[in-house]
Amino acid sequence: MKPADQFRLLELSERYADEKLSAAEVAALETELRDNAASRAFFAKALHQRAELTFDDSWHSQAAPAGRAPAKPVWWRHAITAAAAACVTFGFVWLQSTRDGTVATLIRAQQCQWAGSSLPTVEGARLKPGILDLIEGLAVLRFDSGAELVLEAPATVEVIDGMNCKLRRGTLVAEVPPQAKGFSIDTKDAKVIDWGTKFGLSAGEDGKYLVQVMEGLVEVDDKSGTASRKLEKGQRVDHGWSHSQLHPSGGDDAEPSRWQPAIVMDTGDGWQAITTAFGRGKDSYIQSSEKTPNDFGTHPFFRVKHSRDSKPELNRKGYIALDLSKFSGRTIEDAELVLTIEPSELGFASFVPDSTFAVYGVLDEAEDAWEEDGLSWQNAPAHAPEQPERHLPAASKVKLLGKFEIAQGINRGTRKLRGKDLADFLNADTNQIATLIICRETNETQDSGLVHAFATKENGTRSAPMLRVKLR
């Protein structure tokens, strides 16, 4: 053991015996003594030495009565008790971990669904080395070293030991306290080594990855042989991850393509349904930056985000238009909009709480002529590019039709909006096409929050935006 470490442990032993350690310092000390046999031995020896050195011969200056051993002073008993308690406490934790082979705890499971996991998935479960495969929700792992990981579905992580894991795919946020410096996360093409910080990591099975530092310092070691990089607060390294998310391609999808109906469907009980794939229907989104492309209409999803004031260029709003020609001359008695949530791997779900979304109808029918491939921040309907509330439409040009919620960590399922306001808006239409705008009202708690996504008619596996109506 290095002299510096000995002096540090000696100081800690003194403060421990005097009950002057904070809760955080006690936790850090417990971790070190559990994981380091040399530290355990030195700490116990230091406490024992303290007891011997503090002993005062004056306690024995008076002879004890004959036949009676001199009483040990109270302070001496306290010192021995403290040393014994320390050894028992730290020894028990270390022995428990050694005996059952566990290295981490699943301390939180929020809205979680699991698939293909080799480890227990009950909140509070102790975890041995193995695989966790999260398909929905947020899960928090606390390693015995003190490092905490927030897994954001969909994500697959391999627990290796108290100081190492591997992110096979997906996104996580890591928070590593000082006592766990050196904690590392492996990916297919990189290793991220933490030096006491908070950072986000996204990785794909194809080797692409993104590292973004929120606090502190991390080291990124690319397995291609290039020199490792050190990243500080606010810095990031993007090895093809963002490009793959911002410019999705169909690729070789193992799943069969979903049929997107281009007709009016009779769904029973007097209800009929259309999607944006019918007639003149369309769907796209805009982003508040002049540098972004205007081909979002070709994407298999539209994105929605309320970005912090520090990143105004990252706001996004979804646009859909529905062809109402088949309902011409009929009165819509009831109406329901159905949106399918698409898993999004842009941003971190950890930084976006339960979210409220608002749906607006565009009032000026002349603005229904927008084009999917040409829609932009500068020309979008009912939109004021320079207004302060960039995540919302121009209030005077729209009608609020309703709101819906998505809980934190949810990345699948559908959300429905139904009611009189939607039906009235559709009945007021005269040009047989209606444009709706979808916005997220809820802001992110810090930069790099999740960008929500919803399937479009270009999506091969999930349903396009759907309108169900009941005609009178």
Summarize the structure in words.
Helices cover about 20% and strands about 35% of the residues. Helix 3 packs antiparallel against helix 4 (about 75-100). Strands 1, 2, 3, 4, 5, 6, 7, 8, 9, 10, 11 and 12 form a twelve-stranded mixed sheet that branches. Strands 13, 14, 16, 18, 21, 23 and 24 form a seven-stranded antiparallel sheet that branches. It has a five-stranded antiparallel sheet with strand order 15-17-22-19-20, covered by helices on one side. It folds into three domains: about 5-100, no CATH class; about 105-245, Jelly Rolls (Sandwich); about 255-470. The protein has helices at about 5-15, 25-35, 35-55, 75-100, 240-245, 420-425, and strands at about 105-115, 125, 130-145, 150-160, 165-175, 185, 190-195, 200-205, 210-215, 215-220, 230, 235-240, 265-270, 270-275, 280-285, 300-305, 315-325, 330-340, 355-360, 400-405, 415-420, 435-440, 450-455, 465-470. The protein has six helices and 24 strands. It is an alpha+beta fold. The protein starts with a helix and ends with a strand. It is elongated. Mean pLDDT is about 85; it is low at about 55-65, about 65-95 and about 250-260.
